[in-house]
Design a protein that fits this description.
mainly alpha, two-stranded antiparallel sheet, 2 strands
Length: 158
Amino acid sequence: MLKLSKMTDYAAVIMAQIARDPEQAHTASELAARVNLPQPTVGKTLKMLSRSGLLESRRGSHGGYVLSRSPAEITASDIIAAIEGPIGMTECSHADGDCELQNTCGVADNWQRVSQAIRTLLECVTLAHLAQSNPLKLPVQLPIQSVTLPSTVASREH
């Protein structure tokens, strides 16, 4: 099963909660109560999101966490990458991947196309979309044939 970690799911829930009131600074304890998660988990998630540049931490009596950009400028891909690292279906799906079967597997190019299609779709879904209560309408359709691999990935195969 292809599945995101619980921490990534929590990050999306926390980010969506912040996006619903983006002008206010949110504390870890306040967010934990609103999203019904343990405060240590929320605190750890907030730190990871801050280190990745998606959140800013403000100190003081009215301190807390705020989005570093508008919800429309933060993508699902950004949130996933902040927690999981680079998005790819296989080890050879991203530029820094290393695979011992690269020269003989025969499927790397197609897996790279699938990975690129998934990344492209996730880059089209914004935090503003995720924070809405109504069902998400995917902004794009991606026939796999239209996916173009970045030259750095495609050139590694030859």
